[in-house]
Amino acid sequence: MAWGSDMRRKLGWLALVVTVFSLGHASAQSAIPDGTFVRDSADNVWFVAGGQRSAVPVRKASDEEVLALPVSGRWLVGAPEGLVALGDRPEWAKEPESIKIEDDRPRVNVRLSANAVDRGATLEVTVTATDDFGLDWIEWEGEVERSGQATDDPALTTVHRFECNGEKTCSNTMAVPVTGQGKFEITARARDTTGQRDTATADLTIR
Is the pTM above the cut of 0.85? Predict the structure, then answer.
């Protein structure tokens, strides 16, 4: 009789332990919905599907490498059967933070084959620019000096622009026959892919 009472007590304690364990195990279950990407405190990234998490490989890249990619406007979201697809932004998701990096303005210089030439001669104008991220275009044009002591030269006073297509270094040499006469200022300009600009000048005298 005592044995039966002792056994019932043991079985009661065992049932209590199983119940407590079951409650603890149930409380540890995640409330994260399927189709969600999560990052833990160890900086691991997981994708939740079917109530389970799968590791997501994330490649490290510099801000410059990331900014070189155009934005699609789409989001990677969960799809049926544990797959992912490109879709619309989830209601709970915030837009990505803007990358804030230092961006120096471009540097441009202009070099003439000669600073004094005879009328009718051919002048070579070389414009070279550099930028830390990439250049949009370079250009140059000639302007009559403010003293006004010069006759117009259409070849010089026309803006000559050259596309750089995002290259970090861009250069162009153009040969033009000069038909004007007097003092001119050759102005070179450069614009980078973020809209920043730089200018440089060189003096020219046409005899």
Answer: no
pLDDT tens-digit profile, the chain (207 residues)? 444 555 555 444 444 444 444 444 444 567 888 888 899 999 899 988 888 899 999 888 888 788 888 888 889 888 887 788 888 988 888 888 877 677 889 999 999 999 999 998 999 999 999 999 899 999 999 887 765 566 778 888 889 999 999 999 999 999 999 988 888 899 999 999 988 999 999 999 988
Which domains does the chain carry? 42-101 (no CATH), 107-206 (2.60.40.10)
| Tokens matching residue 76 | 């990677």
SS (HEC) of 130-185:
ECCCCEEEEEEEEEECCCCCEECCHHHHCCEEEECCCCCEEEEEEEEECCCEEEEE
Residue with token string 């409330």: 31
- Residue corresponding to tokens 């230092």: 102
The residue type of 148 is: G
Residues near 74 by beta carbon (within 8 Å), at least 6 away in sequence: 86, 87, 88
Report the distance separating Cα 133 and Cα 42, nearest Å. 33
Which residue shows structure tokens 């998701």? 93
Closest residue by Cα to residue 34 from 80, 74, 73: 80
Identify whether the C-beta of residue 55 lies closer than 8 Å to the C-beta of residue 44. yes
Q: Extract the tokens encoding 49.
A: 């599907």
